[in-house]
Amino acid sequence: QSAKDLGEFEPQFQTLARTAAAMSPAQGENASRAEKDLYFKLRTLNRQIVLSNPLLNFDDIIFNRWTSSYGHVQECWGSTVLDEGGLYVTSGLRSDRPRLRNLLEDSRFTNGPWKGQKILELGKAVRSFDLAYDGTKVVFAWVHRRSRKHRIATVNTDGSDLCLLTQGQYEDLDPVWLPNGRIALVSTRAEITVRC
After folding, report:
1. How far apart are the C-alpha atoms of 25 and 17, rounded to whole Å?
2. What is the pLDDT averaged over residues 66-92?
3. Which residue among 40, 78, 147, 158 is the one 20 to 30 A from 51 at the CA level?
């Protein structure tokens, strides 16, 4: 696939730029709707431009979602994160109707103290994750609802083979795949203070 000429997007951009220039500062709900409409049109154009890059030859993207009442200091995160969120995949990025699914929706642990249990029944917060180099597995830091401790787990990108890698008194977070297939992570095993 060859690179698109970005000039083909210029007429759309110029139309939106003229609309923005003619817009008066927000006054009331009507102005807010017009600004919001313009924003979404600009985001749509931005998406078209980004997805025209031939190097972006994939149609799925993985992301996590979580909410915390205080999330800067890593040691505090497990105790302040709300029990919501998860690990999600958006498929059909290039289509008009992308689809969203929770990667962990039906995932059950294959090992460890929660073997056979669904991960989302034990906790929903996924702090960080990394996709394996071959795109088949995800490693992630997950918070158990009761213990409030970060644990490292892996799962296939189809949600199967959920495997717990760490457990115990320490917190383990921010895992990344190494090129050789091993995993590096941050841990409280060093028993030092803030690691951010």
Report:
1. 15
2. 70
3. 158
